């Protein structure tokens, strides 16, 4: 399965648009999930089902924590979308016509690919038909089977040659294409210094700690916490924890612990509290956590 | 029935317990309300949940004063079974066809009041001050003689993850108990 996955060159670019961290490339989305346990949230409307918002597609939005972690681990860099477009997007002159030509080529390639797919489907179907016809004929008249075959083949040939002519790309057959990204995700084109710091919530140390332990995190709205913590891909596992981050000296209401513990147990999870351990700052990312479950009495 | 309005009504059972601690309050390193909290939890464990050998600890095994008094005791049945141990038990029961006996273990119970505020730091201090199993310091020699390797031993006794029962007392005499593990503990699939 991994062999069929398209290779993604790191570091990848994360587009920052209006303070949100977005990824527009499906290969990158897949790669981040497979290789880095980063899930993100799809936020784009599906073109074929624009009147609903239960299922969403590209782009994928990353939590600031996810974006920051990817930048810190050198997997990604932040690309400020507005700045890039102001500086690089070809709005006029010969660069604009070059750009339009490029978009046109993409459309041409897409239409040709579609044409080829149709063609090969047709050929497979015809070959099947021919084989079936030959078999039927051979059952009836074994002697005349050769002649029948020739007929089939000649019919097949004419069909193929005519469609070949129609598949020759002309400028008129190019599809109108709207590229989802204006810059490629390949790292070579960009200066990695363009990365900017990401402002993360105070729960970031807990996020990093759990991520390093191999857990997957989703935003915690479902269970009223900071993160839902999954032991594997959230598509395959139930969450183990509802995690809430606290500062080392931040006051915690007992009612919060009881409520969280009760809710967590009810949905077969543990309520996890944790945060940066200010007494062990010499360690790398010191985080202390406590898991709470209902005692059953 | 007539009430004598000149004398107080008879004290409740818990009031008797609290009154009995009066003499010890002076020598205690803790504030009286912490000791009273521990007494209320101890009383609740003994008489509502049938716990036995319930004790109040004011000092750690290294004779340092604990951040607050903590209760230990033996529940009538296992208070916590680790999910992995449960898997092992079910497997063994399936193979042998006989139920695996569950022996209760000593548990720590941390008394708190619902109106309190805790911090991660204070929870960490409390956990750092206690042993994994209550009374482990006295029964250590017995353990050494006979290494327990029965089903699920990896999640019992001194092998278990450090835990306390977080007991929260409300003024209406409700006491709730939550199992609190030090660190990440996989949830049970109740």
TrEMBL record, chain A:
Keywords associated with the record: Lyase, tRNA processing
GO cellular component terms, semicolon-separated: tRNA-intron endonuclease complex
GO biological process, one term: tRNA-type intron splice site recognition and cleavage
Keyword tRNA processing carried by entry: yes
Pfam families, per the entry: tRNA_int_endo (PF01974), TSEN34_N (PF26577)
Enzyme Commission number(s) of this protein: 4.6.1.16
GO molecular function: nucleic acid binding; tRNA-intron lyase activity
Location of the TSEN34 N-terminal domain: 12-81
Similarity field: Belongs to the tRNA-intron endonuclease family.
Functional note: Constitutes one of the two catalytic subunit of the tRNA-splicing endonuclease complex, a complex responsible for identification and cleavage of the splice sites in pre-tRNA. It cleaves pre-tRNA at the 5'- and 3'-splice sites to release the intron. The products are an intron and two tRNA half-molecules bearing 2',3'-cyclic phosphate and 5'-OH termini. There are no conserved sequences at the splice sites, but the intron is invariably located at the same site in the gene, placing the splice sites an invariant distance from the constant structural features of the tRNA body.
PANTHER family found in the cross-reference section: TRNA-SPLICING ENDONUCLEASE SUBUNIT SEN34 (PTHR13070:SF0), TRNA-SPLICING ENDONUCLEASE SUBUNIT SEN34-RELATED (PTHR13070)
Protein name: tRNA-splicing endonuclease subunit Sen34
Species of the source: Calycina marina
Lineage, highest ranks first: Eukaryota, Fungi, Dikarya, Ascomycota, Pezizomycotina
UniProtKB/TrEMBL annotation, chain B:
Database matches in Pfam families: Sen15
Keyword hit for tRNA processing: yes
Domain tRNA-splicing endonuclease subunit Sen15, first and last residues per copy: 41-190
UniProt-recorded name of the protein: Sen15 protein-domain-containing protein
Gene Ontology biological process terms in this record: tRNA-type intron splice site recognition and cleavage
A Gene Ontology cellular-component term: tRNA-intron endonuclease complex
InterPro entries linked: Sen15_fungi, tRNA-endonuc_su_Sen15, tRNA_endonuc-like_dom_sf, tRNA_intron_Endo_cat-like_sf
Family of this protein: Belongs to the SEN15 family.
Keyword list, A-Z: tRNA processing
High-level lineage: Eukaryota, Fungi, Dikarya, Ascomycota, Pezizomycotina
GO molecular function terms attached to this record: nucleic acid binding; tRNA-intron lyase activity
């Amino acid at each position: 399965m991994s062999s069929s996955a398209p290779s993604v060159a790191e570091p990848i670019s994360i587009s920052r648009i209006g303070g949100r961290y977005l990824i527009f490339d499906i290969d990158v989305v897949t790669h981040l999930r497979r290789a880095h346990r980063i899930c993100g949230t799809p936020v784009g409307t599906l073109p074929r089902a624009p009147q609903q918002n239960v299922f969403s597609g590209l782009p994928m939005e990353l939590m600031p924590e996810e974006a920051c972690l990817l930048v810190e681990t050198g997997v990604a860099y932040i690309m400020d979308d507005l700045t890039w477009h102001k500086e690089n997007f070809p709005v006029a002159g010969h660069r604009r016509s070059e750009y339009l030509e490029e978009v046109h080529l993409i459309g041409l390639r897409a239409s040709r690919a579609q044409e080829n797919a149709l063609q090969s489907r047709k050929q497979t179907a015809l070959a099947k038909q021919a084989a079936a016809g030959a078999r039927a004929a051979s059952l009836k008249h074994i002697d005349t089977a050769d002649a029948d075959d020739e007929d089939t083949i000649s019919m097949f040939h004419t069909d193929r040659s005519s469609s070949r002519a129609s598949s020759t790309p002309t400028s008129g057959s190019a599809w109108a294409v709207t590229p989802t990204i204006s810059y490629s995700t390949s790292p070579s084109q960009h200066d990695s210094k363009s990365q900017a710091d990401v402002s993360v919530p105070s729960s970031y140390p807990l996020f990093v700690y759990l991520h390093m332990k191999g857990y997957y995190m989703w935003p915690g709205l479902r269970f009223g916490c900071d993160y839902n913590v999954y032991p594997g891909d959230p598509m395959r596992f139930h969450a183990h924890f509802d995690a809430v981050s606290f500062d080392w000296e931040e006051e915690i209401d007992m009612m919060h612990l009881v409520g969280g513990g009760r809710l967590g147990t009810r949905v077969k999870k543990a309520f996890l509290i944790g945060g940066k351990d200010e007494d062990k700052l010499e360690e790398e990312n010191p985080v202390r956590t406590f898991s709470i479950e209902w005692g059953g009495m | 029935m007539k009430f004598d309005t000149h004398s107080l009504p008879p004290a409740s059972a818990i009031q008797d317990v609290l009154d009995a601690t009066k003499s010890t309050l002076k020598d205690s390193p803790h504030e009286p309300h912490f000791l009273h909290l521990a007494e209320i939890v101890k009383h609740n464990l003994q008489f509502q949940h049938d716990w036995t050998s319930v004790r109040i600890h004011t000092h750690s095994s290294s004779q340092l004063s604990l951040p607050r008094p903590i209760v230990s005791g033996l529940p009538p049945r296992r208070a916590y079974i680790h999910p992995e141990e449960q898997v092992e038990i079910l497997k063994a029961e399936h193979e042998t066809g006989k139920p695996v006996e569950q022996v209760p273990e000593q548990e720590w119970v941390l008394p708190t009041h619902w109106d309190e505020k805790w911090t991660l730091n204070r929870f960490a201090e409390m956990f750092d001050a206690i042993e994994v199993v209550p009374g482990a310091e006295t029964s250590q020699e017995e353990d050494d003689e006979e290494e327990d390797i029965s089903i699920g031993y990896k999640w019992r006794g001194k092998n278990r993850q450090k835990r306390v029962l977080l007991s929260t007392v409300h003024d209406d005499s409700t006491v709730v108990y939550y199992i609190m593990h030090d660190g990440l503990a996989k949830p049970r699939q109740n």
